[in-house]
């Protein structure tokens, strides 16, 4: 692995062709925005390029690939975007391990790619992609590319609300608006719109919310049976549940425990400034950021909840 | 009324003293941010100043006046901020009509003040206040003033999601962050935090949501009995329900019917681009904007719902 800068990354893109761009599984706005912005830019400068994701892309992101041309070719150059670890590529992990370039913003990047363009202090990989594409005079940032980059920046910064939001995040959003990013429909689709199924899912899950430690810890869970019983929900609807418990007044740590299969649970942790949930997740073999982390449990739901709540209460006691 | 520019407004503030700053009733982040930013800046340059509002200030805005000194003096100079019409000052209307200066961003400003500093294309009056204070070299924009100005900008732009958000909105947010605006707690308090009571209220109300017209119309209702049964909810929690039905995928008109007293109901209507709810509300003696309107019914809940849904379905049929 070799760390490279924007100049070298631009040169690398110019000097290579037949790009396979890999976006992480359970795709979010940042990996998709980054992947399709890069794909569009490469096609624009005459390269062959396609962006792929191991998971289906949620319908609400349709607009990010509206100007992408379907190209058939034998991939020669693998680039990963917003992929901190090749294992986040799920079934495409082996392809990821052969990546010639990784463009990322996760401080936890495992340095699996041959070259790494990393900006660990950026809110979104799309901020870095915007700099990269802006540094290439032959690339024109179209309104579609601006939509892609804005999507990543808005979603990864929690609509400019999270602590990763920097003055630069706002300045880049301003520049992307000037380049034609159509922010109203994007933000409606990303942040406000909910399907009937999602509403029902939230309803059911929240009706069973548990509070611990004088309301400082809140836990919800979602079983496979529940997910199967509600029509029209997707993985993103389920993923979005993770943020809810922490939004309740007085809650320092919000926990969402999701059943992956019988006996296997994945917990998502969100926290206020009063707790480092990455450290908590690490105790259970997981990881993440200080304010958003995750880990897995092979036991019953009740046992997973008990262990997590205990660790969280300990962490809050020390804070 | 005379329109003035930033220079003249700055000169006016310098040349006068004993300022009474009036903020509009049912105060929001923009009027409060604007009022307390101005008050803090005036006190900083040695003027006497106080900011007042005809209504109590919701607790979540406590931080905006944390550096304001309580000063006793006889007001000489009245300034209104973010007040489009003196009648929005409720009981303080007569004071507002004597305003020497109005600083505002509403295109509908009724020009009631002697001098008017107006930027009708700005998302927030706080954008204009930021320009005014920045144009006065003797004013230092402290982190507290930056918090105030950021609050107005973030809230009036719907956290940078509404169509009034401009590139400038983002650029000013970036500058205010550099000046010390502490965005994470502000945004959490403004946009994400919900009390346990509010969550329970939403839960209960949404569990009874009704869809009509193939999901294009969604109706919720909230009775006085329900409001009384949940601890710790306030009028803002109840008011916030109105936005929810319209956020559901496929819903063109969202209706929230609130019981005011037995036999008297108030309906809030929200719509997509596909319907003009002001026109619908007018049929029932109400009014409002095309995308947000309201009207009242003196009948049973079921009858109010039946009449409204019928009128909405008719309106959608024509669209």
Model description:
2 copies of one chain form a homodimer. Chain A has 319 residues and is α/β, with parallel strands linked by helices. The first copy, chain A, has 2 domains: 189 residues, inorganic pyrophosphatase (n-terminal core), CATH 3.90.1640; 123 residues, Diaminopimelate Epimerase, Chain A, domain 1. The first copy, chain A, is built from 12 helices and 12 strands. In chain A, strands 1-6-5-4-2-3 form a 6-stranded parallel beta sheet, covered by helices on one side. A 6-stranded mixed beta sheet of chain A has the order 7-8-9-10-12-11. In chain A, a hairpin with a 3-residue loop joins β11 and β12. In chain A, α5 runs antiparallel to α6 and α5 packs parallel to α7. The longest helix of chain A has 18 residues. The relative contact order of chain A is 0.10. The mean pLDDT of chain A is 96.
List the helices and strands and how they pair.
Two copies of one chain form a homodimer.
Chain A: E1 2-3, H1 6-15, E2 19-23, H2 29-44, E3 49-52, E4 77-81, H3 93-97, E5 101-104, E6 115-118, H4 125-134, H5 143-156, H6 167-178, H7 183-192, H8 196-206, E7 210-212, E8 217-222, H9 224-229, H10 235-240, E9 253-261, E10 264-271, H11 277-283, E11 287-288, E12 292-298, H12 301-318
Parallel strand pairs in A: 1-6, 2-3, 2-4, 4-5, 5-6, 8-9
Antiparallel strand pairs in A: 7-8, 9-10, 10-12, 11-12
Helix pairs in contact in A: 2-4, 2-5, 4-5, 5-6, 5-7
Brief synopsis:
The structure is a homodimer of 319-residue chains. With 319 residues, chain A is α/β, with parallel strands linked by helices.
